[in-house]
Amino acid sequence: MKKRICVLLICFLCGCSIQSQKDTVSNQTDHLSLTKSRVQIALNTQFDYLQYVSCDSKKDVQYNIIDTSKIGTYVIHYKYHNDSEDFIVDVVKMYKNKIFNPIGIKTNIIKNPKDITVLVNKLNQIPDNWVPDDLVKVVDSHQKLRQEAAQAYKEFYQAAKSQGINIYSISGYRSNETQTLYWNNQVKVRGEEYASQYSAYPLRSEHQLGLAIDVSYKTDGDRLNEDVEKSPIGKFIVSDGYKYGFILRYPKDKVSITNYGYEPWHIRYVGKALAKKLHQSHMTLEEYYEVMN
User: pLDDT tens, 242-267?
Assistant: First the structure.
């Protein structure tokens, strides 16, 4: 009898231990995670606070409320059991194709502006007062690029010319003062919506990196418009640009991703290895960094 009681007691204790282990494993797997780290929403719209939250019981998630009636960058602090996560929401003036006005939101300051693959856009800006220290003139032009990009552009330029393709260098490196003038002039002449689509806010322009250049097939009139797409140089950019380390930075079918209008004239140097990878995968620089992260 005593032996039977002992056996039952041991089984009971083992069962409790197994159940305890199951509970522990269950609790360990029930974590809070976010499917994104940052989003932009239109001014005066409702925000679904649990849209990007992943956990077993969303009703147990705690979070603070943000004011979507004011433009700005907000942080939502999520808490779930012993887990916590921060989520950034930019309340912006939103236009068609999800292009948003960059004014009034907080940007990330990039730490590696010398990196030829660095991502600069409406959310990632160049450090104040940073200027490339290796700018040189590009072939057959007074425009400038960083030395490595200028050498690659020379090869690109000569390859195009060897095929009888006209190519003119319109705008390369820009100082912060010049980019400020570009932005202010676009806003003054065409308004903030147009500027948000086709001009970068100061310190958020790839031209300030010394790695981007605008090219055209002509030197007079409106040189930078969508007609570049149909020109020999526009087609050459798409077919052969990557061979020299250049990408078409703002494609027609990726407007909602790059957050800029289609610019068949704007090419960006990222190096041959990355340019080939982006060309083959049909990815933008934004998509590449999202995958990498």
Answer: 999 999 999 999 999 999 999 999 99
Asked whether the beta carbons of 274 and 117 are under 8 A apart, the reply is yes
Q: What is the pLDDT of residue 11?
A: 47
Catalytic residue, chosen from 155, 177, 229, 263, is: 263
Which pTM was predicted? 0.88
Residues 287, 293: Cα–Cα separation, whole Å: 10
Note if 263 is an active site residue. Answer: yes
pLDDT for 29 equals 56
